[in-house]
Amino acid sequence: MDTIIVAGATGDLGGRIAKAAVARGAKVRALVRPSTAAGRIAALASIGADPCPVDFDDAQALAHACRGVVCVVSALNGLGETILDTQTKLLDAALGGGAARFIPSDFSIDYRALPTGKNRNFDLRRAFRTRIDTAPILATSIFNGAFADMLNGQMPLIQRRVRRVLYWGDADVKFALTTKDDVAAYTAAAALDPAAPRNLQIAGAEVSARDLAALMGEVTGKPYGLLRAGSLGALERMIGVTRRLFPARDQVFPAWQGMQYLHNMFDGRAPSGPVDNARYEVAWTPLRNVVKEQ
């Protein structure tokens, strides 16, 4: 039985990855901080993971925790202190512990196709990418577009009260949407694949704003229209104003960060096709099942 590390397993996506990896027959060592609440540790044990308390500032202990594993999966989420500093400590520990492979915490639109300075959180991941690409370890980044689950609240595209789908720029620009469970299942499979490539592109669905409106009409039995909120340039100006008025620099997802993500989705430059969906067996969740949940 292969052993993998999951860092960030007490988080939403990390917990799903740990559960999916156990379901695929892996032994999951879930790194948790010594101060982690007992309830969260018990929750990990209940899904079959092995909670491993470790101080991330103790390089020797962290490297010891990474011994005997085939892959270290990072589902850490945060700002520079986490994505750059803590994730680098994890990378160093993976190297010191002899792990062969590392999956960084990307799980997003393929930011490689986008210019720097347009999304703070992508810039942090891009900076970590330069670090891992110079390290003697095999890395795999998984690009899944946006999380489809967010259509039911956090992402304001579907305006159910007025039966409209909000968009900026072009209503026919396609973007990728993938549920968190599907991302987790795919990540677990990639973690157990010794031949996984450097980059993997997945999409549970590839849709445009126009496609979403048509789907909502089918799902609800009521016609949905489109609501153009403005051009991409207008959205970019709004991002700038919001960032100046409400900087919230210590927050991972302030309002302007979410707006940056929407800009990236409608930008049209990031690949969205399900290029690598067939590499592993995943029961992809139909988008209609996601939007029916409300």
From TrEMBL:
This is NmrA family protein. Keywords: NADP, Oxidoreductase. Residues 2-223 form the NmrA-like domain. It comes from Sphingomonas hankookensis. Pfam families: NmrA. It comes from the Bacteria.
